[in-house]
Amino acid sequence: MALQSGLGGHLTIDLGALVRNWRALDKVSAGALTGAVIKADAYGTGIVPAAKTLYAAGARFFFTATVDEAIAVRAVLQDAHIFVLNGLYPGAANLYVRQNLMPVLSSTSMLEEWLAKCVERNEAYPAALHFDTGMNRLGFRLNEAAVVAEQIERLGFAPQMIMSHLACADLPNHEKNRTQLALFQSIISRFPGIPASLANSAGVMGGRDYHFQMVRPGVALYGGRAVIGRTNPMAHVVTLHAPILQVKEARTGESVGYGAGITLSRETRLAIVGIGYADGFFRSLSSSTGRKGGAVAIRGHICPVVGRVSMDQIAVDITELGGDLPVPGEGVEILGPTIGVDDVADAAGTIGYEVLTSLKGRYTRSYLGEIES
Fold first, then answer.
1. GO molecular function of the protein, one example (predicted)?
2. Which residue, 45, 63, 172, 234, has fewest beta-carbon neighbours within 10 Å?
3. pTM for the complete prediction?
4. How far apart are CA 281 and CA 291, in angstroms?
5. Per the annotation, does 311 bind a ligand?
6. Residue 9 lies in a domain
């Protein structure tokens, strides 16, 4: 791939693939509403174009982590239903009301502040209630359910949704999934008639028992693997190329990169590529003598990273390409159809979520197939 002007990395987001992924998940969750988790800048793809595209595809319920994210979405989607997963920030109820945002209430203090605002304005502003069924992050404790139910019933407040979050859905046979499902069912029995939501991306794929009235896919929308040990059925959304800066010969016995952690065992051709950890190419993708690191693709061929990843550059072994050598300015596939998000994650010892949300580097961005709302 020839990069624009040959001046730097290029990140392409295929919004058509994003739509296909949402529609595929919507089909799987038939009978439940399919929301869209767009936190962390829509997993690195750009929260505004992603939200507009998903809305045009049919999504109406969106989940952000922070208020700032929610406000950015509200500015372009006036009638979307937007939940703030981090809940109600102290003293910020008026902001949520003005922006028509729904906090996901997860503590007694959040609930009391929100209900006080409703009483003050004599209006039942919508919100969700989040119960902790075993993850020990945000959420009401199970033994608070009766008190919460009594409190909202006394004030005539009907939450928009009862929620919880699965801790081990990426491992479908994990016993904790069934335990959390049973606990969640016991919670929602205290709130008859209120819609419920439990399933993340992996939960959507885990079976209809987890779907309830709404599902909340995240990483699968953006092409990431949701379930460990299964072939990923989702279309890849992000493609990242970086330019070759130099092609050079290196001799047997020479070292490559900081720390001289790898010594070449043969005459080697190297391509020096203009990407590094400042661009989200993890330092853990480095290789050393006896340790395999990450890889890139050049003209469809896998080429391993040689030596340590530095801030701005990596070296890759292109010896196996033979005599048809790439040239400076030619693009190297960092992410795409040959090197998937989860291929990079596996090599780096992390997860696809981190790969996607680290796409904040020095790239030119472009979007394919954007759908205007």
1. alanine racemase activity
2. 172
3. 0.94
4. 18
5. yes
6. no
